[in-house]
Amino acid sequence: MTKIVARHVRKVYYRRRESLTAIEDFSLEVREGEFVCIVGPSGCGKSTFLRILDRLYPQSSGEIVIHRHGQNGSRPATAMVFQESALFPWKNVLQNVAFGLKMRDVPRQEREEISRRFIDKVGLTRFISHYPHELSGGMKQRVNIARAFANDPEILLMDEPFANLDAQTRVILQEELLRIWEENRKTVVYVTHSIEEAILMGDRVVVMTAHPGRNKGAFDVEFKRPRSLEIKKSPVFSALEFAVWEMIKEEVAGSMEAGA
Predict the structure, then answer these.
(1) Within this chain, do residues 240 and 165 fall inside the same structural domain, yes or no?
(2) What is the mean pLDDT of residues 187-198?
(3) Mean pLDDT over each residue of the chain, to the nearest integer
């Protein structure tokens, strides 16, 4: 079943008398339960596309269709995990994770039970009463991930969630995210600069062109799930990583020349 359909999406930003086209004629279909990773050079519109899916930005033209399970509004269509921490500094870990559930009027006992379950899944039970300023960068992203899953969206949107973390923390959180995702196989659209990360995480890797962003091509990732970092040792992994790079390197060079 198709979950997301984007047809000929275009996004133009206007500043005074100038216009900037971020995305041009971008089309993509994502299946129910599919983990799709989008890669491309800086400034190609990857993050803009996620924000359009999340209804934070309107598209200038084209069509976005999200096929919902139900129309009663009991579950949100999407939840976003940003690169930067999006936690409320005046709320502790439990309160931050429970925030979306509270906004949906989930009874207090139920929302705390759900939140505690996901806090435990990301290994932060000991820090449940801590505030964001008392947490490391990796811990903050664990809270962001727990909050997104706890709110039970139909689609999870992730905008380079581990980009600001050190290499060791990033590896740990990649594995944690895959483990949690395996439990329910939510539909995920995941933006990353890392080809290696895209192949490790995704069922499919979509390559965007340099500005303005278009869909240049896609690669199926056929490693079985559940996955671990062991797949990086495979010659097939290396070959796929090289193939994606071959498609993207021209776009990266063009983006650098344009000063993106």
Answers:
(1) yes
(2) 96
(3) 92
Same-domain status, 62 and 158? yes
Which residues constitute the domain of residue 112?
87-152
Residues 134 and 253 placed together within one structural domain of the fold? no
Q: Report how far residue 189's alpha carbon sits from residue 159's, in angstroms, rounded to the nearest whole number.
A: 9
pLDDT tens track for 205-232: 999 999 899 999 999 999 999 998 899 9
Tokens, residue 42: 């800086």
**Are residue 109 and residue 199 in the same domain, yes or no?**
no
Non-local (6+) Cβ contacts of 167 within 8 A are none
Residue 82 in any domain: the answer is no
Would you say the pTM of this structure is higher than 0.70?
Answer: yes
